[in-house]
Design a protein that fits this description.
Arb2 domain-containing protein; Rossmann fold; 16 helices; siRNA binding; eight-stranded mixed beta sheet; Arb2; about 15% strand; alpha/beta
Length: about 375
C-alpha cells in the first residue's frame, strides 16, 4: 500500500473515531445483563480489548465448558451487530430501511442506504454484499471484528471512503432471513435497561448462557434467502434510480448471489452496473451463467476478482478453475481479511472503470452475425 493510501485511510478513520468514543461498545454492553462476562471495548485503534487487562478476546471464559462459551460468543456477536447498526446510522449517517415497507405487523428485514441514494442523479451508487454467515449489515466478518478490529471486519471504512468520493451507498443485510421467537425474547431480556437489582441481572444472564431453547423460526418475507433479499432490493430500490452508475463489492457467497441476480435481471443489471469487485467469491460462472455468450462477455469486461493468495496485492492470480475475468491477489491468504486488504485497490479499479465506461446500452435485440446475414440474403 502506498504512503498516500495509508494516510487517506488514517484520515477516514480519524473522522469517525471521536464519534465512536461517545458510542463506546462498553456503554452498549452496560445496557445488557452480560457486563461481567463481556468486559470489552474498542480501543483507539478500534481493536476489541478487555477493559481491565487490555488483552484480546478470550473464548474459553468458562473453563472448558463449550456450550456456555459458545452462548457467550453468540451474545457478543449479537451485541456487535446491534452496535454496528448504531454506527451505520449515527456515524455514517445512513438510513435504516425496513422491507417490505408497507408491512409493520410481521417480522421484517432491513438494509441501510445513504440519504440521497434514490434521489440524486449522475452519481455512483455502491452496493455492499457480504459473505454468508451470522454477521449482519455493516460487517464483512464477525470473526475479523473480534480478533482484528473494526477497521478490518466492519464495512465502515469502505462506506466512509465511498462517501468521501461522493458515492451513494446501499448496505445489504442478506443474512437476516428469519426471526427465532424464543431467542428474540431472550435478547430483549438481556438488552432491557434499568432492570433493577444486579442479582436479577446475573440470574437472567446465567439463564441465557446455560439454556438451549428450541427454535421457533419465522421467515422474513422477501428475505428468506440472500438471493431473495438481493432481488427485492434491486427491484424496488436500485432499479428505480435514474442517471446512476452502479458498482458492487461482493465477498464470498455474495459473489454467487450477484451472479444469481445477473441471471434473473439480465438486461437491467447489464445496463445499470458498470463495475463489480468480487472478493474471494464463491460464484460459479459455468453453472450459473451457462453458455450465455452475452453474460459471459459482460462479466469479462465488468468484473474483477481479488482472491486470497500469498502474492502481493494486485499481482495476477488466475486459477485453472476460474478464468472468466481478471483475477488478482487480495494481498492476504485469509478469507476474512481480504475485503480490508484489497479496499484501496478496489476503489482505484472503480475509478478507472468509470472513466473508461462506454455509453452502449444492451438490448433484447438478437446479435446479428455474418451467418445470419447470409441466410437473410439467400432467402
Amino acid at each position: 500500500m502506498e504512503g498516500n493510501d495509508i494516510e487517506e485511510l488514517r484520515a477516514i478513520w480519524d473522522l469517525w473515531l471521536p464519534v465512536t468514543q461517545e458510542l463506546s461498545f462498553q456503554k452498549f454492553i452496560e445496557q445488557s445483563d452480560l457486563l461481567e462476562e463481556l468486559k470489552y471495548d474498542f480501543n483507539e485503534k478500534a481493536e476489541l480489548r478487555h477493559t481491565e487487562t487490555q488483552r484480546p478476546f478470550v473464548f474459553n471464559y468458562y473453563k472448558n465448558v463449550l456450550e456456555r462459551n459458545s452462548k457467550r460468543y453468540q451474545a457478543l456477536g449479537h451485541l456487535l451487530a446491534q452496535y454496528i447498526y448504531e454506527l451505520l446510522e449515527k456515524v455514517c449517517k445512513l438510513q435504516k430501511v425496513y422491507i417490505p415497507p408497507e408491512a409493520d405487523k410481521e417480522p421484517r428485514s432491513f438494509f441501510f442506504m445513504s440519504e440521497t441514494a434514490l434521489t440524486s442523479h449522475h452519481s455512483v451508487l455502491l452496493v455492499l454484499l457480504q459473505d454468508h454467515g451470522v454477521f449482519r449489515a455493516g460487517q464483512w466478518s464477525q470473526q475479523a471484528i473480534i480478533h482484528h478490529g473494526l477497521q478490518h471486519g466492519s464495512q465502515i471504512p469502505c462506506i466512509q471512503m465511498a462517501l468521501q468520493a461522493h458515492y451513494d451507498v446501499i448496505v445489504l443485510n442478506p443474512n437476516d432471513n428469519f426471526v427465532d421467537l424464543k431467542m428474540e425474547k431472550e435478547w430483549k431480556d438481556l438488552l432491557t435497561q434499568n432492570i433493577g437489582s444486579s442479582s436479577l441481572k446475573m440470574v437472567q444472564a446465567e439463564n441465557f448462557l446455560s439454556l438451549q431453547q428450541p427454535l421457533q423460526c419465522i421467515p422474513k418475507r422477501y428475505s428468506n434467502t440472500p438471493e431473495e433479499h438481493m432481488a427485492y432490493i434491486w427491484d424496488y430500490f436500485i432499479s428505480k434510480t435514474e442517471g446512476k452508475d452502479v458498482a458492487f463489492i461482493v465477498h464470498g457467497y455474495g459473489g454467487l448471489v450477484f451472479m444469481d441476480l445477473l441471471v434473473r435481471r439480465k438486461w437491467e443489471v447489464m445496463n445499470k452496473v458498470y463495475a463489480v469487485a468480487l472478493i474471494d467469491s464463491e460464484h460459479h460462472a459455468g453453472h450459473q451463467l451457462g453458455s450465455d455468450v452475452q453474460l459471459l462477455a459482460w462479466i469479462k469486461h465488468h468484473c474483477r476478482e481479488w482472491v486470497t493468495s500469498p502474492k502481493p496485492l494486485d499481482k495476477p492470480a488466475a486459477t485453472v478453475l476460474k478464468k472468466e475475468f481478471p483475477m488478482v491477489s487480495a494481498g492476504t491468504e485469509k478469507h476474512n481479511l481480504a475485503p480490508s486488504s484489497s479496499l484501496q485497490s478496489i476503489f482505484k479499479y472503480f475509478k478507472r472503470a468509470l472513466k473508461a465506461k462506454t455509453t452502449i446500452n444492451f438490448s433484447r435485440v438478437p446479435i446479428v452475425t455474418r451467418s445470419s446475414t447470409k441466410r437473410k440474403q439467400s432467402a
